[in-house]
Specification:
heterodimer, A: Rossmann fold, Rossmann fold, 3 domains, 6-stranded mixed β-sheet, 5-stranded parallel β-sheet, B: alpha+beta, D-amino Acid Aminotransferase, Chain A, domain 1, 2 domains, 7-stranded antiparallel β-sheet, 4-stranded antiparallel β-sheet, 11 strands, about 30% strand
Chain lengths: ~475, ~230
């Protein structure tokens, strides 16, 4: 079963032959750009432009129809006028595995519904599976195919499905800058044939994928989605960003129950019953995916108690409030931990209870090595399930030698590896947007991410991400004995 | 099968919903406790039926024309004797809304022991299929919308979590000096209605919406005191 699913989708995620429909001999169209992008992305297989009259397009030999290519087509990228697409698909004669229809003008508006039905029928006649219409494409590092400019070549564990094309681009580009690495991202548009549920099945089976993210607007096959997620018992974490959750309740409901249902309740139910994590914004989506990419869930000790360590008193207080609202507990350490911290005889102004607030002066001591002692005591006590280290980079600027900051971050990395698996380590690097600081942040982000520490821009981001992790861990624990 | 017969009869009679008696029979066929009752046609028969029922009793008019029985004056509660029951039937028959409606009869029922009012509901979602709902009755459902939904079929753990999710959950544990009620009895009803092989799964094609309102829950158990099942469009 698992093997079947992987084999079925292999031509999509690792195409050996790609057909492109809609590229012009003069260049400049989206399909021309697509050809350039996959070449730049390192795609080495055959590319077959389909063109009604030209001999060649972008230096590649062109063919008249999808049925005329020298080899069968694994993946066809189609961006021509909507009405021309069904006849094109019908001519494929079973020689196309997956067709992705970028064109819009189908079921997204009432007048296009019939054409969308005709499109789905044409795909069946032509013998292929269909992605879209009304989408942007596919990003698959393992297959060296992408629809975005300067896409990240690095492969990773995050598999994404997006019903919006534009948001798919955002997820790739913003996700990349926050450290996400993708096993794939598929934009599915109107889902005339292949649905997000089909791709969830693939990602669950795919060994490269460890966490699945979905941006959904509707679930035509909601029942199947529910059953697949429920049966998987959150074996791989799933993060769902659902658009359109505030639609007015069912209009003509005749019962109390009907009037109370609304559109959101079923998604809350889905989350509670399957363990998928619901998020509200694109940033929360990326932040939650990053936490699952980087940290290993510990269902036996679900994340609840959090130790905060860093510089900034107000920041610590606000973070404590924010974490508490998210169900995370930032409460004072026990006596032995406090005694051990007190024995360090930190300078006045340092608060050691939790949150641990260390002014820059303290962090500067011993060229930043004091941080390692503090972190060692907190982690060694075994109390917190998560340790959030936050550094306000601006506070260091201009008054501290650069190596102090390096020492601090490296101390965190050392303590984390010393107590591997004991507590989740999260790093928050706060800055004011100053380009040199952003550049340093980028370096630290890469370094920490590679060592299994996710880096966030603000404490609230880290809080939401840890809350997502905690929700997943609690669900897995609650279902561990459930039949 | 009793439950299929009840739905078929309502379909044959071109009804959009099961009447109260059929609704309760449907619940009873899935093992949900409903009040002991008799259906009578007039005051005399009502008085006679009292011999087999333990007071206090409730009397409700049965009519496909009256969606809101109590607004029409078609509900009387706390009746203790045959004479009170007979008077109540006569008074109801004189009320204009009832006199002008098709009346199938009167439902005479034993009243449930006092307890916390809970609502259990059902709904067919076009994408996800049957959903089951639970909430605390009265102001909690109507004003605060303090309810929890799940996709059917639910497990026992799902049912427990539904109750934990309610903001008013403390009332079930006996807040403000009241006795705790049987949480187990609510979980049991939720499973019979929304669990594997439960009412909503078995009749997913036929039931569009369901309200068991109220389900009265005491220390001893839960009784479905009113029930509405709205059928899907045929």
């Amino acid at each position: 079963m698992t093997r079947d699913v992987i084999e079925r989708f292999r031509p999509l995620f690792e195409p050996k032959t790609v057909a492109v429909v809609g590229a012009s001999t003069k260049g400049g169209t989206l399909p021309n750009v697509f050809i350039r992008r996959i070449r730049e992305f390192g795609y080495g297989g055959a590319i077959y432009p389909i063109h009604p009259s030209a001999e060649s397009v972008d230096g590649l030999k062109a063919y008249r129809s999808l049925g005329d290519t020298p080899e069968p087509v694994d993946y066809a990228y189609i961006a021509i006028a909507a009405a021309q697409v069904p006849p094109l698909l019908e001519e494929a004669r079973g020689r196309v595995r997956f067709a992705q229809v970028i064109s819009s003008g189908f079921g997204e508006a009432d007048e296009g519904k019939d054409l969308e039905n005709a499109l789905a029928a044409a795909a069946r006649t032509g013998g292929m599976r269909l992605l879209g219409p009304n989408c942007l494409g596919l990003h698959t590092p393992r297959g060296r195919v992408t629809f975005t400019e300067d896409a990240p070549k690095q492969s990773g564990p995050v598999g994404v499905i997006s019903q919006s094309g534009g948001l798919g681009t955002d997820i790739i580009r913003r996700g990349m800058s926050r450290g996400l690495e993708f096993s794939g991202l598929v934009t599915v548009g109107n889902c005339a044939d292949i649905t997000p549920t089909d791709l969830v099945e693939f990602y669950f089976a795919d060994p490269q994928t460890r966490v699945v993210g979905m941006y959904l607007e509707a679930a035509k096959d909601g029942r199947r989605l529910f059953e697949i997620l429920r049966d998987a018992k959150a074996r791989k974490p799933v993060v769902v960003l659902k658009g359109g959750r505030t639609r007015q309740g069912l209009v003509a409901a005749a019962s109390h129950t009907g009037a109370l249902a609304g559109d959101d309740r079923v998604w809350v139910a889905l989350s509670r019953q399957t363990g998928c994590v619901m998020v509200d914004t694109l940033d929360q989506f990326i932040d939650a995916l990053l936490v699952f990419q980087t940290l290993t869930p510990q269902p036996q000790h679900p994340t609840r108690r959090v130790a905060l360590f860093g510089n900034g008193g107000g920041t610590s207080v606000l973070a404590t409030d924010c974490f508490a609202r998210l169900g995370l507990d930032v409460s004072p350490f026990g006596r032995p931990t406090l005694d051990a911290l007190a024995a360090l005889q930190l300078p006045p102004g340092t608060s050691i209870t939790n949150p641990v607030d260390c002014p820059v002066g303290t962090l500067r001591q011993d060229e930043g090595r004091v941080a390692e002692k503090i972190l060692d005591i907190i982690t060694g006590s075994g109390t917190p399930e998560a340790l959030v280290i936050h550094v306000n980079l601006s506070a260091f600027a201009g008054r501290t030698p650069p190596e102090v900051l390096d020492n601090l971050v490296e101390a965190a990395l050392r303590v984390q590896s010393r107590y591997s698996g004991r507590a989740h380590f999260v790093l928050v690097l706060r800055s004011d947007g100053d380009p040199p600081l952003e550049e340093r942040k980028r370096e630290f982000r890469a370094k920490a991410g590679a060592l299994g520490i996710p880096v966030y821009d603000e404490l609230a981001n880290a809080g939401h991400a840890l809350a997502a992790l905690a929700f997943h861990e609690r669900f897995v624990l609650s279902r561990s004995g459930d039949r | 099968m009793e439950s299929a017969r009840l739905i078929l009869e309502a379909r044959r009679a071109k009804r959009a919903a099961l009447d109260e008696l059929a609704g309760k029979q449907l619940l009873a066929s899935y093992g949900v406790t409903v009040p002991k009752s008799r259906v009578v046609q007039d005051a005399q028969a009502a008085g006679a039926a009292c011999a087999n029922l333990r007071p206090p009793l409730a009397l409700k008019v049965m009519s496909p024309d009256l969606l809101h029985k109590s607004d029409a004056g078609g509900v009387a509660v706390g009746l203790h004797s045959a004479a009170e029951v007979e008077d109540a039937v006569r008074a109801m028959m004189k009320r204009p809304a009832i006199a002008n409606a098709r009346v199938d009869g009167f439902l005479l029922e034993e009243m449930a022991p006092a307890g916390v009012e809970v609502v259990v509901g059902g709904l067919r979602d076009p994408q996800f299929g049957p959903l089951v709902m639970v909430g605390l009755g009265g102001v909690f459902v109507e004003v605060l919308a303090d309810v929890a939904f799940r996709i059917c079929p639910i497990t026992r753990l799902d049912a427990e979590e539904m109750l934990d999710e309610l903001k008013g959950a403390a009332l079930l544990r006996g807040a403000r000096g009241r006795k705790a009620v049987s949480r187990e009895a609510i979980v049991d009803v939720l499973l019979k209605v929304g669990g594997e092989g439960g009412l909503l799964m078995a009749h997913a094609q036929d039931i569009a919406e369901a309200d068991i309102n109220p389900l009265i829950v005491s220390e001893q158990g839960a009784v479905a005191v009113d029930a509405r099942f709205i059928l899907t469009k045929a």
